[in-house]
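Dear Dr. H.,

I hope your travels went smoothly. While you were away I took the liberty of generating a structure for the chain from your last submission, since the lab meeting agenda had it listed for discussion. I wanted you to have the full record in hand beforehand rather than looking at slides cold. The sequence, exactly as received, is reproduced here:
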Amino acid sequence: MIRVLVYLFIILLGLCLSPYLVGNTGYVYIAAWDYQIETSLVFAVIALVCLFSLLQIVEWIIVFVINLVLNSRYLPSRWRKQAARKNTLLGALSLAEEDWPAAEQAMLKGADKGEIPALNLLAAARAAQHQGKSEQRDHYLERAAKEPSASKAVSTTRARYLLQLGQLDSARIELDKLNPTSKSKLPVLRLAKDLYLAQEDWQAMKLLLPSIKKRHLLTDDEFIALNKQTNLALIEQATSVSEQELEKVWHWLSRTERNQAEYLSIYAKGLSLFGRKDEAFKLLMKKLKSQPFAEIFAVLPEMITQQDTKIIEQLESFEEQFLENANYQICMAKLYQDNKAYKEAKLCWQRACEQSPSKELWLSLANVQEHLGEHFGAIQSYRNAVHL
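The corresponding predicted structure, in token form, is as follows:
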């Protein structure tokens, strides 16, 4: 650009000075060796400008030829790279359109001379996964894993695909290679959560929960629900293993969690199974004195037998306090019905139906009424159940 401006300046300057030069042509004498040149000043200036222009043109031609010669050695490689970019673009568009065969073929063509071969191979593996081509998928992933920086991405991808196919053990092997921690990437933590849930590995999930909370993988409500599901499953599993395992899991919970009725009810049920029924009832009765928890009323009929008359009497003492509580009425109705005290059970079922009517409650009331021979009342209860 600067050269063009210089040429333009020289031309304009010549146009401005030409009137003066025409009137005074001047004289130029050049002598070199045996050669002598005599000419006017105007011609000498014009000759110099032409010579300089000719030299500039020669320079451009020489530079162009040199560049052409140097680049010609790498032309095939450049063409292949351009073709790889084109195939990669076509593959990406095919992935967006979910045209899996076309995406797989295009990504493979762009992998050899592509700028990021591992990316093409991972995309090809994804296309193969959607087509159910397991062998090709694994082959692409193995090729992509040769790139050191892509090894973790390959393990994550392979584990996710195995999880989708239901091959949980193989997926777990790949996940263990990644060693999920709070410092892991979010896709790894999300994969670990999904896999632990699929395997029902609640102990591993319990260890993962702090990392999930720290990295904000879930919303507050989702985390609370997952934490609750994990704790309940751990207690239930421990109940089926041993008393020592139950105590271990129970003390694994925080003090706040051990004070919650939903966990306390399952823990008490486990204690009763291991012959510590008095201790279990003591915990539940203490909790009921503070508030009528539905979880406790739900578990009591599963724990109380006909021999537990003291517990039944203790629950009967809460009648006035929990008269308007449907969960209490359902609990007492089940206990009376198990003890074949159908009149008392009928009264409790009626109260429960009035306070919280549902199909199941009306059917339970009809069942008791049939035992008492109240067929008309049972028919009416069945009708109420049908309407609901």
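Two observations you may find useful: The chain has a mean pLDDT of 84. The beta strands are 28-32, 35-39.

With kind regards,
E. W.
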